[in-house]
Amino acid sequence: MKPKDYYAFHKSIFETWEHGEIMETWTDLDGNTCIRYDSGAWWHYKTDRKGNIIFW
Fewer CB atoms near the end CB (10 Å): N or C, the chain? Predict the structure, then answer.
C-alpha cells in the first residue's frame, strides 16, 4: 500500500483532520511505512494479513 493510501484512510476516520498534508515518508527498520505531516506529527502504518490498516 502506498503512503497516500494510508493517509486517505487515516484522514477519513477524523471529522476534522488537523495534521495537514504529507511532508515526509520513510520505511522503518521493521518495514513499516512512516508518514510525517505538516503539523510535525507522524505515525507508523502497516497492513495486516486481512488487509486492515493499522497505525500507531
Answer: C
Q: What is the identity of the amino acid at 31?
A: G
34 in Cβ contact with 28 (< 8 Å): yes
How far lies 49's CA from each of 12, 27, 29, 52, 53, in Å? 21, 19, 19, 7, 10
**What is the spatial distance between Cα 51 and Cα 27, in angstroms, rounded to a whole number?**
19
Place of cell 497505525: 55
The reported pTM is 0.94
3-52: pLDDT as tens digits: 999 999 999 999 999 999 999 999 999 999 999 999 999 999 999 999 99
